């Protein structure tokens, strides 16, 4: 049987006490880890990012930059925030609470037993393995989105543009940072279900048959099914499943009505329709900004989009988006599903 040798983990130990750092180095290297030592906080944050550290063991009381500030910087940087931090210190309980609030993952008080440090390090690294696995799975899904957009010149860059519109509109309505983050993921993933839609339907230059329309209308359900196993993306499922619902309850797949449709989903629907109208499609040329406004206002009047969000969208973007083509709007109510 062939065994696969695991790459040593990189542990960054930050403490101004030489005796402590040497003890930790011996303990951690005996456990198979690679250890890098720093004696103050001047370059720690850059070291963590550039060396791709797997774990940071951090003292609180140090010269130049204390452990609280280092912890805050590591946990607020998108490049490093998932890296676990183990705090080692002999200070009071109040500092322990502060460290938790700044994002520290574990806390051990000096004096400590070396075997306890080793055990906590193994536990934190196992947890990071799980996070990395989830991140890898999510990366695969986002790669599918890029593959989907690469299938057709008509959809290239669609999700990125929709995200720009949706985030600006959501910000004007005061969505929280947490909701904005969910919206960001939902926008990027909203059309992932089309990965299972035949290209011959997506790129058909003429009108779709009733049977082809039914196939297109499966993509929100398929998208929710694809993303469902990803715990890190489950909050985005309503955006994926419901972005074709209508205010009058005549949308799909669930026929939700009015306030039953979450605000973030209604925001996505407005942004999604604008980009669909203002982009070239196989069955028509792109519309101008004014033509898009005319079609979307009419859609809202007929019970489709949220009228308040449509008004806010054009208040937000009029004058900021250049005209596309001069094609006349035609039949968009039936053609929009693509």
Automatic annotation (TrEMBL):
Span of domain HD-GYP = 133-329
Which InterPro entries does its entry note? CheY-like_superfamily, Cyclic_di-GMP/3'3'-cGAMP_PDE, HD/PDEase_dom, HD_domain, HD_GYP_dom, HDIG_dom, Sig_transdc_resp-reg_receiver
Q: Does the keyword Phosphoprotein apply?
A: yes
Q: Where is the Response regulatory domain?
A: 10-125
A GO biological process of this protein is: phosphorelay signal transduction system
Q: What keywords tag this UniProt record?
A: Phosphoprotein
What positions are modified (4-aspartylphosphate)? 59
Q: Which SMART domains match?
A: HDc, REC
Q: Which Pfam families match?
A: HD_5, Response_reg
Show the SUPFAM superfamilies listed in the entry: CheY-like (SSF52172), HD-domain/PDEase-like (SSF109604)
- The organism's superkingdom is given as Bacteria
The HD domain covers 155-277
PANTHER family listed in its UniProt record: CYCLIC DI-GMP PHOSPHODIESTERASE TM_0186-RELATED (PTHR45228), LIPOPROTEIN (PTHR45228:SF4)
The entry's protein name is Response regulator
Where does this protein come from, organism-wise? Telmatocola sphagniphila
């Amino acid at each position: 049987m062939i065994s696969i040798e695991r790459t040593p983990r990189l542990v960054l130990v930050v403490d101004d006490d030489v005796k402590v750092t040497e003890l930790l180095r011996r303990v951690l290297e005996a456990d198979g880890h690679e250890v890098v030592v720093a004696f103050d906080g001047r370059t720690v944050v850059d070291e963590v990012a550039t060396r791709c550290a797997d774990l940071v063991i951090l003292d609180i009381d140090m010269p130049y930059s204390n452990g609280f500030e280092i912890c805050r910087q590591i946990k607020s940087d998108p490049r490093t925030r998932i890296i676990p931090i183990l705090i080692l210190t002999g200070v009071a309980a109040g500092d322990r609470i502060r460290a938790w609030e700044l994002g520290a993952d574990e806390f051990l008080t000096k004096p400590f037993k070396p075997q306890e440090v080793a055990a906590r390090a193994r536990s934190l690294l196992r947890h990071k393995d799980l996070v990395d696995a989830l991140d890898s799975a999510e990366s695969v899904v986002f790669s599918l989105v890029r593959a989907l957009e690469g299938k057709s010149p008509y959809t290239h860059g669609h999700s990125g543009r929709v995200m720009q519109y949706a985030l600006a509109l959501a910000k004007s309505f005061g969505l929280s940072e947490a909701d904005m983050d969910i919206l960001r993921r939902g926008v990027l993933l909203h059309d992932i279900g089309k990965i299972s839609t035949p290209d011959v339907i997506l790129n058909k230059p003429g009108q779709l048959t009733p049977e082809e329309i039914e196939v297109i209308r499966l993509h929100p359900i398929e998208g929710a099914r694809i993303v469902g196993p990803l715990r890190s993306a489950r909050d985005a499922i309503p955006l994926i499943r419901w972005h074709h619902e209508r205010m009058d309850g005549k949308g799909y797949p669930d026929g939700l009505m009015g306030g039953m449709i979450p605000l973030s989903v209604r925001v996505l629907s407005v942004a999604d329709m604008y980009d669909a109208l203002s982009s070239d499609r196989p069955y028509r040329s792109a519309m101008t900004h004014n033509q898009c406004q005319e079609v979307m206002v009419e859609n809202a009047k007929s019970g489709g989009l949220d009228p308040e969000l449509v008004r806010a969208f054009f208040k937000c973007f009029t004058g900021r988006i250049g005209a596309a083509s001069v094609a006349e709007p035609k039949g968009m109510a039936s053609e929009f599903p693509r």
